[in-house]
């Protein structure tokens, strides 16, 4: 092409190396015109932009909201929203450059986990956009993580762990998005990396990723110096989905009190049927073993139970202060556990609210 601004980002081709463009026939981009979504085919795409085969003729510089997905009806789950700026148009359509968030590191066709020929599927392209957004978020809350996070997500994790790590980051970003001071919250780089790396191993239940995300969100503060999250990250790494289901029910349903500024819970009396319901397991012998494990790691207090658990009619479940704090942190709470559970403190007295 003779046009000196033919690169998607609008920079003259002689000033920088042009990003590699490729076709992905199954990839499409939706934009909205009025109340209806309009589907555009993508002739080719690179890490800097794309060429849309469309009847639209956006003026150069105009910003468009696009949703990338596999060609077909609009989807919510398997799609990615991105801003793009029109660069030029011709009879075939419009060339756009991607407007990515600060710190994003989009690398199409560069995955070391797949051959180059196997990176053209829409799912692979969408994954790279999600990775770029995750890196942007992590470097925003902890600037010193930009390089190690980019290396971890681009080069070091298996596809499964990568999916988990990215999900944790994006869920945490969504949680913090509601905070008025979100743009000014920071976290220690060692805490961020510990959570992302440890959480990426979650294998027994995707539901656990929400708690890792909550912990990441809770690690952020205006000063960015909260080291206490490391303890909770190590603890969450020892917990499986079954343990978290039990702890979630116990922390939610127990009455809370405070004493000397420390939050406590009152014991719950659960029948065997209650325990099976909340845990999602019908194996009482296994549940007995798992409850003992939860006691050993300190999230529930030692129990009163019958001699033979399989014949049990009821048992006590009492979250410890550590268990209550863990559950609050894993829900993204950055204040005191008392505030999370709605326990009001006045002097040395406490008002326990039944949940």
The number of distinct helices, counting runs of at least 4 residues, comes to 11
Low-confidence stretches: 1-17, 345-355
* Number of individual domains: 3
Q: What is the overall silhouette?
A: elongated
Instruction: Give me the secondary-structure category.
Output: alpha+beta
Query: Into which percent range does the helicity of residues fall?
Result: 25-40%
Query: Can you write the helix and strand succession as a string?
Result: EEEEEEHHHHHHHEEEHHEHHEE
The count of strands amounts to 12
Strand content: 15-25%
How far apart lie the N and C ends?
Answer: 67 Å
Mean pLDDT: 88
- Supply Rg: 25 Å
User: Sheet bearing the most strands, described?
Assistant: 6 strands, antiparallel, barrel
How are the strands ordered across the major sheet?
A: 1-2-3-6-5-4
List its traits.
6-stranded antiparallel barrel; 11 helices; two-stranded antiparallel ribbon; disordered N terminus; disordered C terminus; Thrombin, subunit H; Arc Repressor Mutant, subunit A; 355 residues; alpha+beta; elongated
